[in-house]
Write a structure and sequence with these properties.
Rossmann fold, globular, alpha/beta
Length: 185
């Protein structure tokens, strides 16, 4: 079994559910992927980090930092950063808060992101693309450049296209149809 196959199987076994769900986008669905059940597990982190580093390299994106909207992007970003540590170009992970911090420095971005960085936005599950677009805006407001969006799962419901209409490329490790297919095995 390849690492991609193992990731799809893990997502199907731990994260995918059938039923009636309201998604973060507000849409209704009979299929839900709670990616955190995979991304916050040792097995998930061990698979996602190296696969994502390879996906970034295969996309030709030369990035300095990776991060996205909390909470979904956080474990994925940390797994990628850790997996890149021994490489010739380690990646710094950061978090985009949903609202600026109400105390202290009032930051919207947390972590070692710097003005001028080339950044890959990380997303756990893309449905409409709204979370990734919010993260893109926050990163650009911090004077960093967005190279692309790397998603763990693309639900194949138009989110990729919404992001790409803004001129930002999207790469996903797996698609919802692959996870659904693994559910039916």
């Amino acid at each position: 079994m390849t690492d991609y196959s193992a990731l799809i199987t893990l997502l199907a076994e731990r994260s995918a559910k059938r039923g009636h769900f309201k998604l973060a986008s507000g849409r209704e669905s009979d299929f839900y992927i709670d990616a955190r059940l995979t991304t916050m597990s040792p097995e998930g982190l061990a698979l996602i980090g190296p696969l994502a580093v390879s996906a970034l390299r295969n996309a030709g994106w030369r990035v300095d930092a990776i991060g996205g909207l909390t909470l979904g992007a956080d474990p994925i970003s940390y797994a990628i950063s850790y997996a890149s540590a021994a490489s010739d170009h380690p990646l710094r992970a950061f978090t985009v808060r949903k609202e600026p911090k109400a105390h202290g420095t009032g930051k919207l971005l947390e972590g070692p992101i710097r003005a001028g960085d080339n950044v890959a936005i990380i997303e756990d599950v893309i449905t409409t693309g709204g979370s990734a677009l919010r993260a893109i805006d926050a990163v650009r407001s911090a004077n960093a450049s967005v190279t692309g969006v790397l998603a763990l799962v693309d639900r194949e419901e138009g989110g990729r296209q919404a992001i790409e209409r803004t001129g930002v490329s999207v790469v996903s490790l797996v698609t919802a149809s692959q996870v659904i297919a693994a559910l039916t095995r």
